[in-house]
Design a protein that fits this description.
By secondary structure, the chain is α/β, with parallel strands linked by helices. The longest helix is centred in the C-terminal third of the chain and has 30 residues. It has 16 helices and twelve strands. Helix 5 packs across helix 6, helix 9 packs across helix 10 and helix 12 packs across helix 13. The protein has three domains: 160 residues, Chloramphenicol Acetyltransferase, CATH 3.30.559.30; 80 residues, Non-ribosomal Peptide Synthetase Peptidyl Carrier Protein, Chain A (Orthogonal Bundle); 193 residues, Rossmann fold (3-Layer(aba) Sandwich), CATH 3.40.50.1820. The strands form two sheets. It has a seven-stranded mixed β-sheet with strand order 6-8-7-9-10-11-12, sandwiched between helices.
């Protein structure tokens, strides 16, 4: 090999002219590649001098961001710029001399994401510390590296005039790396022979965020987020951290299109997320069946629906709908009715004519699906709602006849205390509705919908204000987890009140509400959804 590259850390304020550097506060550090070309025909001493000269020339460029250096190369995402790191700790602590400050003891530690990192500490004596990732590099390779490195250092004491070729010939051939694969998650045998480390600052920062979010280490920039333990909730946290730490407002579709650190970083660098915001998120566009449109949850995300793709029919297109406003530029809708009207336009951009199939998970999507169905009915379009662990209304609203019957029963029993409680509850609900309505207007006017918490609160307010329709013409398929079915008995009757007779079916899945879109429950969920879609489509074709 006659051309070698490795990473190295530069730190401090170099001689290079950086405008206004003295007005800046903080530690200046950067990660840059060091390229060494091996000339086998010159002496070892002359070669070291040549390396030193190149290093002095590099000082003028060591402030250049790594991603900018990478941009100078040919666009080959598979090419590794370097996969090893050299860190020289040469800060002159022993010579520090302040009038009012003394340093008695200093100790630091180094963390690294690279397969092999060599640290050189220059105190009283040279000290070499080798750190390595045992899941990527075998013990045999590390032992070979340390032994040959030590042998090379001892050779330098007596072999300055020795030709480089002769020094190279003394180095033993590296043993085969016995580490081929690691499991990023139990049951996941992702191929780590192709492990790739960060090659620019954006990838490096994203790697740190992924590690914190997923609670894992040694994540390759080519790992698929959803295959190494990522799920919808973690994706929301991931985007929150990216916005918090890097300042990017990323639309959910970005992660679905760019599931690895490398492709996500490339998208950030290339587009800076200036793309036009769309509510329609294409999860799977291929297939001859009518699409299934999945409505976002109260936290505004649609990541959970991604897990359905591999379990639904190959002929089943899948789209999700996300709210406007998440880009921090477009205002949020002011009502369920306004939001639903916008979603219908988005849906019809893909499917101009019905029948339409809607998937609603949890309570906000229930309101959206009912309102969309109601508005579609007005334009003579049919629809079917597949409701998963959701119910219409915050509480079931008893009919006027049911209220009179209950009050009469309490009066006959002379249970005035219960009557008073009921009246008080209605007054409190009315006050609460007014309060949350005013809060929602204030949040919207002040444009404070910039965190998950405020977005969730705002959607809860819209849900509370929504005027539920009495009867919808849509068919409804209700899928309940045992977690919700055992928790509340009002899910079935709440839908039955809204649906015309003969247009309602219900199913039960053994499991927890919060795990329905995760393995293994999502497989059974997808089966019920697909069966229901196929049945509805067949019945529609008979008409």
């Amino acid at each position: 090999m006659d051309d070698v590259s490795f990473g190295t850390i530069v730190s401090g304020r170099s001689m290079v002219e950086i405008p206004d550097i003295n007005s800046m506060v903080g530690l200046f550090t950067n990660l840059v590649p060091a390229r060494v070309q091996v000339d086998a025909n010159i002496s070892f001493f002359d070669w070291l001098k040549l390396i030193q000269e190149k290093q002095m020339q590099r000082v003028n460029f060591e402030h250049t961001p790594l991603h900018e250096i990478v941009s100078w190369l040919d666009d080959d995402t598979e090419t590794k710029l370097f996969d090893s790191l050299l860190v020289v700790e040469n800060y002159p602590f022993s010579t520090l001399n302040f009038e009012t400050l003394s340093l008695d003891y200093y100790k630091g530690s180094t963390t690294t994401i690279y397969p092999i990192t060599m640290m050189v500490r220059t105190h009283n004596n040279l000290e070499f510390v080798c750190k390595y990732n045992s899941q990527l590099v075998s013990g045999d390779v590390v032992n070979w590296f340390i032994e040959e490195f030590a042998k090379l250092l001892s050779t330098l004491e007596i072999s300055y005039d020795t030709p480089v070729r002769q020094v190279i010939e003394t180095i033993m051939i590296a043993p085969e790396n016995s580490v081929v694969k690691i499991s990023s998650d139990p049951g996941n045998d992702a191929d780590q022979a192709n492990f790739s480390t960060a090659k620019n600052s954006v990838e490096l920062e994203l790697t740190k965020i992924w590690e914190k979010t997923l609670g894992k280490h040694f994540i390759s920039v080519t790992h698929d987020f959803f295959e190494i333990g990522g799920n919808s909730l973690l994706a929301v946290r991931l985007f929150s951290k990216i916005h918090e730490e890097l300042g990017y407002n990323i639309p959910p579709i970005t992660l679905l299109k760019n599931r690895t650190i490398r492709t996500l970083a490339k998208s950030i660098v290339k587009d800076h997320f200036k793309e036009q915001w769309s509510s329609l998120v294409p999860l799977k566009t291929s297939g001859k069946n009518p699409p299934l449109f999945c409505l976002h949850t109260g936290e505004a995300h649609v990541f959970n629906y991604n897990s359905l793709i591999k379990h639904l029919s190959e002929e089943q297109p899948l789209y999700a709908l996300q709210p406007v406003g998440l880009d921090g530029k477009t205002p949020f809708h002011k009502s369920i009715e306004e939001m639903s009207g916008h979603y219908i336009k988005e849906i019809q951009s893909v499917q101009p004519k019905g029948p339409y199939f809607l998937l609603a998970y949890c309570h906000l999507p229930a309101a959206l699906s009912v309102e969309i169905a109601y508005q579609l009915k007005k334009i003579s379009e049919a629809s079917t709602i597949i409701a998963v662990d959701s119910r219409p209304g915050i509480f079931i609203r008893p009919t006027t006849k049911e209220r009179i019957k209950r009050i009469s029963s309490l009066l006959l029993k002379a249970d005035l205390k219960e009557v008073a409680k009921g009246v008080s509850r209605r007054i409190q609900n009315h006050k609460k509705k007014k309060i949350v309505s005013e809060k929602g207007i204030k949040l919207h006017q002040k444009n404070q919908l910039d965190t998950l918490e405020t977005i969730r609160d705002y959607f809860a307010i819209l849900l509370h204000k929504y005027d539920w329709q009495d009867i919808i013409s849509s068919g409804v398929v209700l899928i309940l987890s045992t977690y919700y079915k055992e928790r509340s008995a009002d899910y079935l009757p709440s839908w039955e009140k809204l649906v015309e007779e003969g247009k309602f079916e219900n199913f039960t899945i053994q499991g927890n509400h919060y795990k329905l879109f995760e393995e293994p429950l999502v497989k059974e969920l997808a089966r019920i959804i697909q069966t229901s879609l196929d049945k509805e489509r067949t019945e529609e074709n008979k008409k």
